[in-house]
Amino acid sequence: MRSVAFVDNNDVTLLESGTAYFPALIAALDAARYEVLFETYIFAEDETGHEVRDALNRAVRRGVKVRVLVDWIGTEHRPATRLGIAFADAGVQYRVFNPWCKRGIARSHRKIAVIDREIAFVGGININDDMRCDHADHQRLAAPRWDFAVRVTGPLVAQIHDEARGQWLRAGRLGLKQRLELFKESRKLPPTSCAYPARAAFVVRDNLRNRSTIQRAYLQALGRAKHSVLLATPYFAPGRKFRKALAHAAQRGVEVTLLIGVGEFGIQDAVAHSFYPKLLADGIKVVEYRKTQLHAKVAVVDDDWATVGSSNCDGLSLFLNQEANVVVLDQKFAATMREHIERGIADGVPVCADEFGHIGWCRRASYGAAYLLYKLVMRIFAIGYA
What we know:
Blueprint: E1 7-16, H1 17-31, E2 35-40, H2 47-61, E3 65-71, H3 72-75, H4 77-90, E4 93-97, E5 112-115, E6 119-123, E7 132-133, E8 136-140, E9 148-153, H5 156-171, H6 176-186, E10 198-205, H7 213-224, E11 228-233, E12 236-237, H8 240-251, E13 255-261, H9 266-281, E14 285-289, E15 298-301, E16 305-309, E17 313-314, H10 315-319, E18 323-329, H11 331-346, E19 349-350, H12 353-357, H13 361-381
Parallel strand pairs: 2-3, 3-4, 11-13, 12-17, 13-14
Antiparallel strand pairs: 1-9, 1-10, 2-5, 5-6, 6-9, 7-8, 10-18, 11-15, 14-19, 15-16, 16-18
Helix pairs in contact: 1-2, 5-6, 7-8, 9-13
């Protein structure tokens, strides 16, 4: 298992939701000179998707080599096929990750863009309208989807580029020699330096050398926490190790607050609710975000550790999907991230232990049944979930 390796001298800018992310992304695409590597889980057929698609096409017309990788499950077969036809006409190189689940049920849930090996974007934001529900385009949200990404410049971009290039190659047909070369590249640790401003690490989850790297980053941070932990996730269903790490931090006197999205999938809400009694008994504060769709996968530990990425705190992201996060060790960035999460908490509804303790036995049983079903499915498809 690879440890988290940090690189110094990076500029990491937090981007909140599509309002900040898409203008920054399109500006970078329009300034691209020779190469774009682009990955997303969802590439929607809406106005936002068309704007990003057009920016990628403009880059090709300037002579830029553009490679786009979308996930087959996330983008869906027919939209992915139509997108491929449009990109082929424009000269964009295009691939779909794991079509028809030929390589099992793993999904590429990552959202990455690397431009000219100088600028990288990593986060949780898909290519779709902030006002449309992720899983049902026809449903309008009450407020813009709440999500985050980061814009990175500095030495870390080289590592992000190499990983994105490797993912592009893996999505196609690889011979034995190419696979061996990729494996050798994956064994190399990123370079380090002594400069400042921000130390950052790029952590991915895959099914080879990085099966638990993202969870390990969280566990290390939780194990060192001294004062506070703020964690926002759309879906909460991590394994036992993660839940114990949260409980141990709270028992040491650390103020632990979970901001959990609700209202998107009933079964997922029920699974999360099954954990509430134990979380609350351990002294963990639980807040449900109901203002709009919470899609952010972010956390802050103490005053200098923060993460932004695509990985939810559930079994799918931590044990099955292909994911990508950036971890930042920087007080200024952590303070900014903390402010955003605290605003999200203010928009949420705290879960009261007394009120939750008085729910009927039927609902309580349904929560337990949902968890047992979820656990069974995870144990069948995801090694390591418990």
